[in-house]
Amino acid sequence: MQAIYLLDQTVNIHTAPDAWREKCRPVVDSLDEVTEWIIPKGTVVEGDEALLRVRTGQCSPFDEECAVAA
Prior knowledge:
Structural class: alpha+beta
Distance between the termini: 10 Å
Strand content: 25-35%
Order of helices and strands: EEHEEEHEH
Strand order of the largest sheet: 5-1-6
Mean pLDDT: 91
């Protein structure tokens, strides 16, 4: 089951699962300091997390299995 993020989403890099940390990118301010981390729009997530994100409106189903489950 897969879903795709519709917008950039902020994430707590300290509590994010390892698989998500690889997909996150930092937001840097004018002083070159990281202000937050985001999961970019268009990132595909899988499994139960995908269905949860679709149900909360953060993602759109990316495959038929997720669409049917949603």
